[in-house]
Structure formats: structure tokens, C-alpha cells
Write a structure and sequence with these properties.
The protein has helices spanning 4-24, 27-35, 42-58, 63-83, 91-106. By secondary structure, the chain is mostly helical. The chain has one domain (4-106). One of its GO terms (cellular component) is membrane.
Amino acid sequence: MVPVTPLAWLLAAVLLLAGALNLRGPAFVREEFARLGFPAWARHAVGGLEWLAAILLLLPSWRGAGAVLAALVLLGVVASLARDAAWMRLEYPVVLLVLAALVGWATPWPAP
């Protein structure tokens, strides 16, 4: 049995922090998005989606949708880093992707 609630809270906390970082946009984040070929507005979109996924993960009846949204965002991160051949930076997003998959798999559908 997978302890869904603590895992969902952990993933939500990480996504809230990551979303805040993307929305605040310090120089290194802006440079990373530009280096990967994304327009300036993309970091705002990603940050907003990360916050939305985090909020959904905290709501038991929406947890499955939050896990799916988190997984989609993280798939984009993994694809972007793989396209850039940043292999040594893939560990963290891949672990988070697995965590999102576990939460989504262990959440009853439709949620009660």
C-alpha cells in the first residue's frame, strides 16, 4: 500500500517551491529558459501549472488530476533536459515524475 497523502503533500511542496521560483524568475531561471529555446512567458506558464498541480494535489477529491498535471509538467522538464543532453540533471525531475506516477496510481478514480 502506497501512503498517498504524505507523498502527495511532499510533491505539492516541491511544486509550490518550483512554481514560486519560476514565477519570481531570478536571472538563472530566465537564462535557463532562454538557453532551452523557450519564450519569456513560458516560465510563467510552467510556474502557474506547477502551482495548480500543487493545489490539486492537496485536495483529496482532485488529487488524481493534480498527479496527472504534475506528471505532464515533469515530462516536459525531462524532455527539455534530454533534448539539451543535460543527462546529469535528469535525476531530480525523473524522481519527481515517478512520485507523481505513484500518487496518480494509488489515488482512487474517480476520487471519493
